[in-house]
Amino acid sequence: MVGLTETDEILEKYSLTPSTAAQYIDAIVRMNQIQTADKLGVSRDTVNRYKNAFDRMSPEERSHLIILLTQHNLFDQFRNE
C-alpha cells in the first residue's frame, strides 16, 4: 500500500503536478477527452499524456492520488465558502 508521504514521488515519477493531476481527475470523470482539454486549457495530446500516465500507474498509486487529491479539493472548496 502506498503511504501518504509518497504522493510527491508518485507525481514526480509520472511527471505530474498536484494541480494538474487534481484538475485532470476532476474533469475526466465528468467529460470526454476533448471537453477535458478545453476545460484545462491544454491540447488533446496533453490530456492523452495525462491519461497514459494514469494508465501506467499501479492500482495502488492511482487510488492513492485520486483519494488524496479529491480530499484536498473538497477541503479547499469548504474552506473557501
Return residue spans where pLDDT drops below 50 for at least 5 consecutive residues.
none
Largest sheet: none
Alpha carbon gyration radius: 13 Å
Query: Structural class, please?
Result: mainly alpha
Along the chain, the helix and strand elements come as: HHHHH
Q: What's the β-strand tally?
A: 0
Question: How would you summarize this macromolecular structure in one to three sentences?
Answer:
The protein has 81 residues and is mainly alpha-helical. 75% of the residues lie in helices and 0% in strands. The protein has helices at residues 7-13, 18-28, 33-40, 44-56, 59-80.
How does this structure look, described?
There is one protein chain. This protein is mainly α. The chain has one domain (4-80). The chain is built from 5 helices and no strands. The chain has helices at residues 7-13, 18-28, 33-40, 44-56, 59-80. Helix 2 packs across helix 3, helix 2 packs across helix 5 and helix 3 packs across helix 4 (44-56). The longest helix has 22 residues, at 59-80. The model has no long low-confidence stretch (mean pLDDT 88).
